[in-house]
Write a structure and sequence with these properties.
The protein is α/β, with parallel strands linked by helices. The chain has five helices and seven strands, in the order E-H-E-H-E-E-H-H-E-E-E-H. A seven-stranded mixed beta sheet has the order 1-7-6-2-5-4-3. A hairpin with a 4-residue loop joins strand 6 and strand 7. 38% of the residues are buried.
Length: 165
């Protein structure tokens, strides 16, 4: 049963999904994995502890990774080499200078990535380019509300597919 009212257009916050627990967040991540258009950059924003890494874990596992999906908080980057291609999971929480993305090889990752997931994109101070889909997670005290905004056609297609799940 859907607990969702969804509608999407480019550059508008229209995708909205209510998630009540960690298992639902993982399941939503699996749904994203099933419908995403390859070569996306997806950003994950929200307060500390709201579920960004859990959502990323669901996406990565949904793409077929069977190992432990670690939070890249300290390393800032965890790469996963899957049958579908390379998935790069960035966590910019501890980044002090946006140019650190250059040292992490962000541009190189974009060239060869099947998917880039970026937590805490606001720490990049505008350094991130080519964002296809933003996912914002907020807590209302009882559940998490995930909203999405597409910036490219690929992001829009992914979001439109999410409407039918």
């Amino acid at each position: 049963m859907k607990s969702v009212s969804e509608n999407l257009f480019i550059d508008g916050w229209a995708l909205s999904r209510t998630i009540v627990d960690e298992q639902e967040m993982l399941a939503f991540g699996h749904s994203v994995a099933r419908v995403l258009v390859p070569r996306l950059v997806i950003t994950l924003s929200g307060d500390l502890g709201v579920g960004k890494t859990t959502l990323a874990r669901g996406v990565i596992q949904g793409l077929g990774f069977s190992g432990i999906v670690k939070s890249p908080t300290y390393a800032m980057l965890e790469p996963y080499h899957l049958d579908s291609g390379a998935v790069y999971h960035f966590d910019l929480y501890r980044m002090s200078d946006p140019e650190e993305l250059e040292f992490l090889g962000y541009r190189d990752c974009l060239r060869d990535a099947y998917l880039c997931l970026v937590e805490w994109p606001e720490r990049s101070a505008g350094y991130l380019r080519n964002i296809d889909l933003e996912l914002l997670i907020k807590s209302n005290g009882v559940a998490r509300i995930v909203t999405g905004r597409a910036h490219t056609l690929a992001g829009k297609i992914t979001n439109e597919h999410l409407q039918h799940i």
